[in-house]
Amino acid sequence: MYLATMSNVENPTEKTLAELGVHTPEEVTTLFVELREKANKEQRWIDKPDKFEQFRVKWIGRKSGILAQVTENWLKPADVDLKRIVGQVLNEFRSHLQRLVDQAQQGLDVRAGQAADVRERVDLSLPGVIRPIGSHHLIRQVFQQIEDIFVSIGFSVVEGPEIETPYYNFEALNIPEFHPVRDDMDTFYLELPKGAAVPLLLRTHTSPMQIRTMEKQKPPVRVIVPGKVYRRDNPDATHSFVFHQVEGLAVDTDITFCDFTGTIDYFVKQFFGPSVKTRFRPSYFPFTEPSVEFDVSCPFCGGSGTAAGGGTCSKCKGAAWIELFGAGMVDPAVYGFVNYDAKKVSGFAFGIGIDRLAMLKYGIDDIQVFFQNDVRFLRQFP
After folding, report:
1. Distance between CA 326 and CA 364 in Å, rounded?
2. Are 126 and 366 in contact (CB under 8 A)?
3. I need a labelling partner for 123 at 20 to 30 A (CA). Which of 134, 179, 206, 238 fits?
């Protein structure tokens, strides 16, 4: 009897074994061997995902795949004496096809990984990417300089809230309600819900941390308080509604005015250089007694009042001195708010405007440039 093989019949899996003239187990095995060889050959040509999908659908697709056709046309209608051998060889063929599919998938995964490695590989011979290096803002740099100086002589750095109560911002600093000094500190009050326990405001100086620190710590106290403060000033070259301060406080049992002047003189010479001269002038602040204004010889004209090119120095207006900040010995009344014994302790306090110091040291004539974020200005102070 003539045996129809894979080579001389078109789509043999669409025909039954009887139509193919297959009647013995040997002939069944031969048909499956030819199918296996054909699948092996096609699997070796898979090099892309679309070819893999075509192969998978063609051979193991549920509805029209060759495996489904073999089950429907060869196994189900087979004679009883052939059904067992067809089922056995079919199971082996099914496992073989699954292995071919798995191997093809693994091969594609390997190729994809190799391609990714090629794309992502770093060529060390190429020049590196030059990225600009950032730097601290000039105000932050000045803060750091001041902190380094005071930390070197035993002070600690503390910080406090920018939103304060009137008690800490004014009253505990010996500035009661209706005190004239409050008129010089036009203040930003926060709009709070009705029934709020106390009003809140943006602090007008860093001095509230004097009180908060002494409430928590018994003498000796030596701290500086850097931070941002707020006042309702109209912006111009020397005023801003937000600026920066460093508050200083030292309290102990034997601190004198000489300790105070020596500390301030040391700081100024460290910050501006040893050639500057210093002086104190009597002044008034509610939380210090006695109070002084601290001046430094003009660093631009060397304290002569005359500009380098002749004429009056534009920075000190010919006065040869520039006012830096206010300071003084802590008023004994302040100690009463923190339960310190004013008969046993003494101390000094000062408040330094950071923006002003930065302007003097680096020759800047407009405070507004600190807040405009102009990189052309910022790049001058790397």
Report:
1. 21
2. no
3. 134
CA dihedral angle for residue 16, residue 18, residue 21, residue 23, rounded to 10 degrees: 120
Residue 297: the pLDDT is: 86
| CATH at residue 331 | 3.30.930.10
> Which two structure tokens, joined as six digits, stand for 54?
């075509």
Q: What are the structure tokens assigned to 248, written together?
A: 């200083």
Report in angstroms the alpha-carbon separations of 218 from 19, 75, 158, 254.
108, 97, 15, 14
Q: Which domain holds residue 177?
A: 138-378
Do 194 and 276 sit in the same domain of this protein?
yes
Boundary-marking domain end, from 58, 90, 120: 120
- Give kind and range of the element (H or E) at residue 322: strand 321-330
d(CA 60, CA 69): 10
pLDDT tens figures, 23-69: 888 888 888 888 888 888 888 888 888 888 888 888 888 778 888 88
User: Are 29 and 57 in the same domain?
Assistant: yes
Which of 120, 152, 176 is a domain's end point?
120
DSSP-derived pairing of the beta strands 163-164 and 278-285 = unpaired
**Residues 61 and 161 placed together within one structural domain of the fold:** no
Which DSSP string do the residues of 87-104 spell out, in sequence order?
HHHHHHHHHHHHHHHHHH
Residue 106 identity? Q
Q: Which residues of the chain have pLDDT under 70?
A: 1-9
Instruction: Tally the residues of the chain.
Output: 382
| Half-sphere exposure of residue 320: CA atoms within 13 angstroms, side-chain side | 9
* CA atoms 364, 367, 372, 378: torsion sign: positive
Q: What is the pLDDT of residue 8?
A: 60
Residue listed under structure tokens 């941002």 = 228
β-pairing verdict for 278-285 and 288-297: antiparallel
Residue 179 phi, psi dihedral angles, 5° rounding: -70, 135
